[in-house]
Amino acid sequence: MKIIVFTPSLYKTNSYASMMTTSLNYYFVKNLAFTSQNSPKIDVIYVVNEEDKWSKEMPQSFAFNENSNQNKLDGTTVIYDAAGKIYKSVGLKPFNQNTISSIIPTHNAGNVLVESSVLFLVDQNNKILMRDNDYRAQGEHLKPLERLVKRALKTDEIKIDFVKNKTLKVGDKAPDFILNGPNYKNNSTEKFLDDKSSFKVLTFYPAAFSGQILPDFTSIDTKSAMTCAAQIQLIDHNPLLENVKSYAVSSSTNPLLELWKSALRTNKITYLNDENYAISLAYNSYNNLGYNNRATYVIDKNGIIVYANPDLTFEDEAKFPTILEKLILNNQ
Fold it and tell me: What is the mean pLDDT of each run of 10 residues along the chain (332 residues)?
């Protein structure tokens, strides 16, 4: 199979390039999205609508592993198509010919305008299985791609018993579940509500290695769209959580979650692996498109929900420290 990405740039001016190349590398080149022993062979190809700017700069000046650009391209194929010949051959308009009004603005340094990539999933017979015109390393796009790859290859398919749960509200007993993730043994029987010594924060997010760009925490832009990286780091960096246990939940694999934790440089939050979305279904955060909606719950020492937010935003996170402080003081 092939994943072919037509992208405007892999240069440092493209804010989502690093997250996109990293996620596709870990998920499909290194096959860390799969648990089966016979990992599939998937080619990842980037067709870049500009010249190779990186090779023209001094290695001491800029490199792919510097902070402004951390592309992971080992095991992939990169084709620079500044003239747009390959684009035109498959019916795509080259990015550098598009009008400025059609370009999606990003909040990266210098207010550089970067368009979304166009991603194709192609099977062994060169049949197009998927076309995504708005690919920017979003978990909401990455997880459906992963699910379709697994379905097409008939490996690691997750069967979801999807039923619409009643909405959890403040005062409800929190659903219990066995803790699973990089911090726990495979045969662990430890349950979420076993520990009655502290409050718990449970946050659900779409995918590891998604979010367009690692966030800058010098300020919180409440008008920006919430990202997976920002959602986790904002909770992890909350000083009030020193005496609160916090968990981040996604459907993944433990190797991916270990790398994700390292990439985000988090210290306090624990990553949970909800392989078959059972936890997400219990907390009504599963989206039947194949990923978690953003939801956050606070559970008190008695296992009672004292805060329920099924649709997390940056504005909610900006208010969360104050909300959490009041919850703890009022429920001690």
Answer: 95 85 94 85 95 70 50 93 94 75 43 79 95 93 94 84 76 95 88 91 90 54 58 65 83 93 83 92 90 91 92 74 76 66
- State how beta strands 270-273 and 245-250 pair: parallel
- CA distances from residue 210 to 184, 198, 213, 227, 229 in whole angstroms, order as listed: 24, 30, 8, 7, 7
Q: Which residues contact 39 (CB under 8 A, 6 or more apart)?
A: 31
Collapsed DSSP state (helix, strand, coil) of residue 234: helix
Question: In Å, how far are 5, 6, 240, 263, 264 from 209, measured between CA atoms?
Answer: 17, 20, 26, 9, 9
Strands of the sheet containing 77-80, edge to edge, are 77-80, 43-48, 2-7, 117-122, 128-135
Q: Contact 315/303 with Cβ under 8 angstroms?
A: no
The C-alpha R_g of the chain, in whole angstroms, comes to 21
Strand partners, 247: 202, 270
Give this prediction's pTM. Answer: 0.86
The answer to whether the beta carbons of residues 156 and 147 sit under 8 Å apart is: no
The dihedral sign for the CA sequence 91, 97, 102, 106: positive
As a whole number of angstroms, the distance between CA 137 and CA 40 comes to 21
CB 30 within 8 A of CB 225: no
Distance of CA 296 to the CA centre of its chain: 16
Task: State CA 49 to chain mean position distance.
Answer: 25
